[in-house]
Amino acid sequence: MTRNEGQASVILDNVCKLIHKKVRADNVLLVEKFAKALYSNMSKEDLANRNDSDLYGAALSLWNSLEKNTSDDAVIRVFNPEVAKDGWQSSHTIVEIIAKDMPFLVDSVRMAMTRENIASHLLLHSPLKIQRDENDKISGLSGLKAEQESTSTKTVFFIEIDRQTDSAVIESFKQELESVLTDVSVAVEDWQPIREKLIAVSKELPKRRAGKNNAEVDETVEFLDWLVKDNFTLMGYRQYELSPIQGDYELKGVMETSLGLMKNAGVEHTRLLSELPEAARQDARSSNLLILTKTNSLSRVHRPAYIDYVGVKRFDDKGNVIGEDRFIGLFSSNFYNYSAADVPVLKSKIDRIMQMCDFAKGTHAYKAVLNILETYPRDELVQARESELLEVAMGVLQVQERDMCRLFVRKDAYGRFFSCMVYVPRERYNTALRHETQNILANAFNSDEKVEFTTYFSESTLARTHYTVRVTDNNIEYKVKDIENNLVEAARTWEDKLQSALLEQAGEARGNELNRKYAQAFARSYKDEVLPSAAVVDIEKLEMLNDENKLEMLFYRPQEEANSNVVRLSLFHKDEPIHLSDVMPMLENFGLRVVGETPYSVKTSDGSINWIMDFSMLIDSKGMADFDKISARFRAALTSVWNNRLENDGFNRLVLMGGLTGREASILRAYAKYMRQIGVTFSQAYIEGTFANYPHIAAKIVNLFTKKFSVKSPASEKTLEKLSTEIYLELENVANLDDDRIIRLYVDMIVATLRTSFFQKDGNGQFKSYVSFKIKPSLIPGVPLPLPAFEIFVYSPRIEGVHLRYGSVARGGLRWSDRREDFRTEVLGLVKAQQVKNAVIVPVGSKGGFVCKQLPTEREAFLKEGQECYKIFIRGLLDITDNIVQGEIVAPVDVTRHDGDDAYLVVAADKGTATFSDIANGIANEYNFWLGDAFASGGSVGYDHKKMGITARGAWESVKRHFREMDIDCQTTDFTVVAIGDMAGDVFGNGMLLSKHTRLQVAFNHMHIFIDPTPDAAATYPERERLFKLPRSSWEDFNKDLISAGGGVFSRAAKSITLSPEMKKMLGTKKASMTPTELIKAALMMDYDLLWNGGIGTYVKSSKETDADVGDRANDALRINGGELGAKVFGEGGNLGATQLGRIEFAAKGGRINTDFIDNVGGVTCSDNEVNIKILLNGLVTSGDLTRKQRDELLYAMTDEVSKLVLNDCYRQTHTISITQSKGSSTLKEKIRFIHALEKEGKLNRAIEFIPSDEELAERAAAGKDLTRPELAILVSYSKMVLKESFVTDEITENPYYRQLLVNSFPLPLREKFNEAMDNHPLRKEIIATKLANQIVNDMGLNFMVRMHEETGANEAEIALCYSIASELFQMSDTWASVVALDNKIPAAVQTEMLYQLRRTVRRVTRWFLRHRNKAQTITQTVEFFAPTFADLSANLTTYMVDKEGELLVAAAQELTQSGVPAELANRITGLSSLFSAMDLAEISASSKQSIDTVSHTYFKLGANMGLHWFLEQITKQPVANHWQALARASYREELDWQQRTLAEVVLNGFADDNKDVNGQIEQWMDSQELLLQRWKQMLAEFRTSQTHDFAKFSVALRELMLLSHNCV
Q: Which residues are the active-site residues?
């Protein structure tokens, strides 16, 4: 039992329980039996959804009606039961019928409901035998099968119909039911009398012969007898008499003979024959015994068919018709189902027809005609004449098995209808054709009634439909052929019309080919909507689809909508359906509102499936001016959007509204993307809205752009000014201030744009899918600082990127960024660091970054897309960069330049692009770019930075210096390390192998924390080396046996890490456990020697900064402040390990740190060397002096040489910072002057570089604090940057002396083999300028040039020349090298002080040459002039000096030698101040013609005797409070030197030629000048007795000295 059956039986049981509970005891069993009989035929589903109390109420209500109905009259009740009134309820209207049981009841009741259009929800009927007692109370009941005696048989109906609330409708329906039941009752009651009448007529018929042949009579009798045998449902009878009357005949019914339904006609039935049609009149008076036809009335009994009419004529003795016996009813199913040969009358009729046709019996044609007749509609076979049937049969025979449509029409003899037989090919027949046929026939015969039909299918290819067209009079003119032609056209399928259209459009061969392919391809829904002629256009589009072109479209305005804003779009897509969610946003972004869409699949005969999606849309009226033009633009733009060549956003509205092409709209889109990157606050949606409001202004902006960069005819400045003015005039009509600002900014950006690739095409002649813009950001208001000199913005739907550079010759890496919203901000921060990092190399800073906008999620596809985007970015850069061909600048194709030549573009690897250099170089070769594989350093043919370890080694120079300045040699002394990264990394791995005394206590990366509390340096070094050599490794691979007690490798994913006692001791904590983050923070803050950053992330900030300021969310949880960092030294092998303010805070508390751009400059320097070497060698390859293979071999052979050059730069740069820092706050004012000078020239923005304000610097000065090393590092880099730029001048670069800088910048093998070729190096000038700038700053300190300029007013070139003379003359390079050779041999402080004195002396010498240089001489000539004197003086200094002064020098030298300085070097350093006099001595010797020996003796002893040396000492020791006092002090020193020189010349002029007694001659001269010298001696006495001096005293004293020298003779 199913669940429903179980539930139903329960409900019936509950109904029975209610009956037992509520019904009177004497009736309980009868009512229960009645309820079961009533509900026995109810389906289980219907029962299951019922309420038992309502079922009980319904059964009881019907029982009560039954009990009250004691007569045979029917009882009908139509009502809406209510609980209050009836004790039960239903949501439907209830019909209760109790009627005498008789045939046809159920069918007739159903027919009545159908005629009244009333639906039944439940119809229960049950025939019952009823037994009543003497009181007419029901005493028993049973089903009809029961053998129970009964008083009567009744049928009870319980019907639920649609709820009816209108009482008039209820009453009407009730009356209809009563009428039907009356008809049924009459028909049933008279059935036997009618039957008997039919039998009587049949028996009487032979007596009515009246000359009729026996065959016809026999046939008629047979037919009537056949009817009697239940083959005709008899419903009525009446006898009619036909009598002549006034030239006519009257047919009059004999009313008293009426039986059955004929009784219903209460009035006498009389009709004149003249009222009948001719055919009917003839039929009425013909000799035929039978009249077989149908009445005009639909039967209300049994089944809803037109009532059949069987008339049996009566004749007089003369054979005239005198009346008829008319029987009405319905032929039984046997009449329709039996073969016609089994039906009397029909059999003979068919025989006669077959005799009439010409076909021999047994032939195919004979059998075919016979079959046609046998299967012909039976009613038609009865009613039609034999001649009509033959004509139809022959006609059908002719069209059988042919693709034809035929119509056969027969008029009803009584004018009541047309019988139409329509034959069509069965595959063409469908409901639509049937409806169309009904309409055609109704129109043809002027019928207002519904055309009835019956359809017949057989094995034949034709479908036959019999249509009955009822009319009031069928005596009308019509042409069957015309109607048939209409039917043929109606039967012409959509496919037929498509074939015709294809043949007409494409010709017979192609048309038939397409028809075979597409005939059955389209769905019914498509054919219902689309005309075949329009489908031909769709087929053309579908034929254009292929694997490369998967989308085609039609965009049109329907003719029906010519004056509206409705447009249509058809999209054709190969293989897959177009998803509405994909295409809807695209259309809406074009400003189209979709109001309807229909998808169609098209399955062609070859099995492929394509798709059509048809859209109805509303378009903004602004775009409707010239629909044909915008249609082409729109289709092109939408195709581009679909193929991801154009972005899907609101800028596309301008295609329809602004008259722009999709590419032109992309100009505005690209600039909007750029606006986003430069920090403009307007969202893209807002900008789109602005242009949607002012599309004509958008068009003008695009016009300004295209005119400016037109390749064929670029607009003049005047024209561009005019176009800009027009846009500004339009702004008068722009009410919104934000809209105004946006539009003005667009004009500014176009003005700032110098080049674009917008008009370039690819190899296929198509515009490129991306656009590059070279922009000068300083011309755009509000661009975030610092401002690069140029930038290139590359835009495409697939990628956006920016390349920022600070000058024409610039280099830096390209980064694959993940910061889509602000990647320029990221790149700007990087390029700022790159700029200061590049201070040591030829190019200034540049940096690029790009984002991929359509990244897949699958890893391989993700990486491949990254590479493809990188290629687009590289091409975008090269597209608008000049090339050099045979030494000549060649502008890029189809690029209008609004700037000067710009051919230097060098890139490098960065985050995400480490392995992409070969790709970039491949593209450079593809473009024949002059740099070749020097374009991107780090490729497969180049220097492998990791293999060289150059970045780590460069940074290690900083680490060694930090330790050395603590007098620790980290290469021989163990030191503890905390490090960021793992051994697989370049900087980390190489760095942790640079000293065998590294004791790595803690290391961490994103996965693990390595802890070795008390590491064994010797044991762990080989293990780290092993890991480094593995293809890939993690800390998990470290041999745990080598880790000291309490250590281990821990996962950063762990919730908590238990601390061993050793770890607690190391960390200085008592905690039992820590989270991984807490552990890392604790490690960073514990006491240790070195923090080595070889990873990614920012771990140290300032206490004044928030984590949000840092911009590295991944490490927010473990970042500490600089003041909390526990290391003594911070080595920044990786970038951005600390913020600049974090570094400053760490340095301020005593930590030793530079900056990342100082420490890890090795990689950059190596790459620049590689580029410069490749440029040189590539030129030789081009000229044929080298093969490519030889070039590559030479490159690799010079790896160690390049390393030396790089590491020397790293060493020297950190060294100059140390020397500058060594004097602390005493030189702070000089540094402040330098800062002010940079600011004044617009070269430095303090806020960006975190240089302290003047107020803060004043506080530091007061506190005796200097700038920290990170701050000095910035200033050193800026100093080099400024000098590099200023030295690119012929005065420097064309000076033969400086050629050595060019030569020495290359490795030794190149110097030896290709020395001359270096003169043709494209960057010759820049290399010289860079090397000189670095040499000067490294040698002389960051503020040397500014100080010299302030003190002498000389320009940079003149200062550089004089420095070079001074450096060469004083053998600065050799002396410096000698001092440096003492690393780790003498205290670092002693080293630094020695170099500071060297620097100071060369500075004084430079100043001397700036004052006194003979500008007619070259550097070499000048040096050659002074060198002998310098050599002599260096060798004999102490012999020339008075003993006391000489002894002081010897004592100072001994002090140095005690610190480990070699004696020769110690003497050189201590004598530097005195050696300064060499220039004066040389010139005195030249002018006096005296030997250098004599001159030197005279000079030094005169100075000693006159106290000039002591006085110089006082000037030097004089403190200065400000810049002017410093200048005064310097001028006093110079003045004193000059006066000593003058006095020495005076004395020498008085020497006797043969007198070699210098002392005697000096004494003689002084005696002779006693009076003049007295004044000077008094001055000195006053100075000696004073503890302090002021500047006025020095000024007066020097004036006295000047007067002395002037007056002496």
A: 847
